[in-house]
Specification:
This protein is α/β, with parallel strands linked by helices and 280 residues long. It has 11 helices and 10 strands. Helix 10 packs across helix 11. The longest helix has 13 residues. The radius of gyration is 22 Å and the shape is globular.
Amino acid sequence: MTGVLVLAGTPIGDPADAPPRLSTELAAADIVAAEDTRRLRRLAATLEVTPAGRIVSYFEGNESARTPELVEALAGGARVLLVTDAGMPSVSDPGYRLVAACVERDITVTAVPGPSAVLTALALSGLPVDRFCFEGFLPRKQGERLSRLREVAADRRTLVYFESTHRIAEALAAMAEVFGPDRRAAVCRELTKTYEEVRRGALGDLAEWSRDGVRGEITVVVEGAGEPSPEELDDAELARRVAARESAGEPRKAAIASVAGEAGVPKRRVFDAVVAAKRA
């Protein structure tokens, strides 16, 4: 029989937030794959549990090379526990490659739910949470960063980003430029830790505030775009929306119908806008 891959959430700050099942899995796993083995050992000591299995590193630098090794262990019947430094594996952390490889080999994958910076920040932001989109980390280069933001500038869902303390000022300035300085947002840092802070306000104000430096682990939540009236949508915007849907794999005919329905305009107008954009 093949083994089981267990993805386990770890605390994003306060060790007391560790799910009870994490201790059970640490004690039972044949192999514990950790993003940082030293942090894993400290967490295990805090939880007063001794991992019974072999502890190996599994981080961005060795993820590709170590995945086949772990898959073979799983194929041989091992129970492998995957943990990252904070939150859930695969969510802007190592794990996707291993999960995909297990799915391909028909190896069972399960999870121990745990703390999530994405959901915690959403809940604390004060912004709508009925629909949201997690965008991960923005590109480091300014041109690529602006391009990525423009892709979702008209998205009506609440947007969630991770950002580093070294780039948060640049990221907020770029958001204010693309989304507009009046778009509401919340900068959540050091969630569940001693110096937790949630700063809410307009993007322009938050960009100004961040210039003096923001420390800690940071999650940014940004309000979705308001839906413009049909009169405010020009043909270039209609064509852009169709192109974005096509890039995501939607057939052009269906994309045109979707955009027309969302914007409240005739499909013929959207079709003509697409044709004009292609000619231009």
